[in-house]
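User: Here's a chain of 370 residues. Predict its fold as tokens.
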Amino acid sequence: MATSTSHPQTSPFTRCVTNAMRTLYPEHLADHSFDNTGLLLQAPWNRRRAQKPTVLLTIDLTRAVASEAIEKGVDCIVAYHPIIFRGLKKLTFEDPQQTSLLRLAQEGISVYCPHTAVDSAEDGNADWLADIITDRGDKTVLKAPVEESQACEYKLSVYRLCYFPRLSYLRDTPPEAQDSAPFGGHLENEIARRIIEPTSPGATTGHGRLLEFTIPRDLSSILRRLTDGLGTPRALSLALPYGTTVASHNRIFRIALCAGSGSSVFSKLSNDDGKAAHLYITGEMSHHEALAATERGICVICLGHSNSERGYLWNVMQRKLTAEVRNIWETVRAEDMEASTFEGEVEVEVSMTDRDPFGTLVRENRYRAP
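Assistant: Prediction complete.
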């Protein structure tokens, strides 16, 4: 029986994207105590497919995103959340996520997952959230919508299920055409920004950010800036200390931010009155964690887990990865004959099917005709 001595290999463009991601978001920055980052699906290069130097960005790798990637003919996917978190004992079609992996492997589409390396990196997800609050540097508000909302009738009331950020808004609205809420101009000279959980002493990378203001800020202005920067969501989850109102929180000097689930990062903060944060901003917190914070007089804003991350793909990662991949790809094409089979310019697209699993069900003042 004849046997093949050749070994399967990843496409040269996937190797280029992997190197670019490791440059922008080094894997050693990830929290390896629980996280699983890096090239999680190394698919053999399928030379029978049309070779396009295209990568698809997404927060979650769902069946819909996998289908989108296959239909678009992308070469690889960068999925923020790891598609494989724990050890697998089998790969079968019984599990939807495993089915997506098998379909992508068959098409030769690899999957790279950076997760907490993006949270920790300079100019990473945490800094993007902080920039929305401080208006530091370039405009950082989202480029693009909610997917179209879905209406459903319940008894006599009409409810509308809304998702944010609206992907069409993110895709179609240029950053320069978007205005963030007035906040007294740029605040770079008025605040200090430090890392809550640095990767090493004195490091400029790490998890979470603490903004410290010399001039106090009011909660209502912060809420306006967040809603503008996150694609105008219809609702946010807000926890206030008992007996207080949004208007009464008008002397906020310290804001702690963390994308995703921030409780473990916030636990590293001091509880001393002179050093404690006045406001937590994160994707999600449990009931008991939020209650414990409000009992200490801290306000909590929860944006939705992946909604605290998705805008970063559109506003920052797409731009940075495009520039980095183009630089590397130019060199690769000049040195690797196999890379010449790829046609077209490098493209970094963001998934239009990726969304948070939770939407907001909004009751509207409309009724069915009797």
